[in-house]
Write a structure and sequence with these properties.
The chain is mainly beta and 374 residues long. It has two domains: 137 residues, Protein of unknown function DUF2961 (Jelly Rolls), CATH 2.60.120.1390; 175 residues, Protein of unknown function DUF2961 (Jelly Rolls, Sandwich), CATH 2.60.120.1390. Helices cover 10% and strands 38% of the residues. The protein has six helices and 23 strands. The strands form three sheets. Strands 3, 5, 6, 11, 13, 15, 18, 19, 20, 21 and 23 form an eleven-stranded mixed β-sheet that branches. Strand 5 and strand 6 form a beta hairpin.
Amino acid sequence: MTTSNGRRSFFQRAAGVFGLAAAPAAVQAQEGGEREYKFLPKYVRSQNYQSLKQSSHDRTGGNRDFFPIAAGATQELFQAQGPGVISHIWFTIAARSRTHLKELVLRIWWDGKDKPSVETPVGDFFGLNLGDYVLYQSEFLACSPGRSLNSYFAMPFRKSARIAVTNEGKEDVNAFYSNIDYLRCNALPSDALYFHAQYRQKTPNVAVTYPGPQKLNPDGKSNYVFAETRGRGHLMGVTLGVQINAEGWMGEGDDMIFLDDESKPAIIGTGLEDYFLGSWNFGGRDGATPFGHNQYGAPQIMMAERTGGRYSCYRWHGDNPITFSRYMKHTIEHGHANDRADNYYSVCYWYQSEAVTDFPAMPPVADRIPRVRL
């Protein structure tokens, strides 16, 4: 199951990345060193943190275990003092509005910052970038039957963490259920980084026109930008929703990632479907098949290569987080050499040594709803 695998992988990451599960030095010495016990999985060893949860449970002891969120209102979901690590976020929502996944905005603040380091519509954060519920399971995000949304990104904080959701729609949300699992520890290692998630969209992208048949884009200056940041950290991946505005294959766009050099990309791929680890137009106009795997997928493919068609994709770099020391800009072409004008909606996920808060302004809610732009 998603929850079991996610919790196990989190414990492994917490032990290996954040150093939270090491046995006391005196115990290690008494046991004669750790090499003798490599056969033991980490989860059977003594852990040195406190497991906690904050949820939407009924404070009276009743069964109204949810938050109603009026139109225009903000509901705080989580507030904790550090050091600690958020290990799992679960939401499920009952709302009258059919576009509530785009109308509800998730924000997360680290260490008392005035601005958030996570700011994205709720649906987009969980990989539902076109506002549709689509069942899938991946290493870090999942949507399960019953419309339950899950995140297993580990999110460390040193001083404090706060999570809130704002209803920017015109209708009230009847019930917003929330369970947020976290741990409290004595300290975090000095190299523990802050989690970030940034939403962007282009509706539509501006198609580049060329005077002749040859189309060249060596520098990526007109590419779609997933995120741009300065500092030290590593890129974990993206989710992307595409609303097709014209007939034909929407891909062929190469991924181009700029690392510590703003003048040229350090990483260049071979096509949009290749970046999301599919191939051959995901199966083409009449053979496209949705798929979802641990590190990559396209769980939503509707009306492939037709005007009005929809694609939702995700790609994680968990096997090899893409590191940067001073600067990172993750981009992708919209069509070959940016020759298409489709709508893109995306979230980029990364870790950074400082809690970055300089994000582009969130587009108005009406502009976030996917619509064909002929």
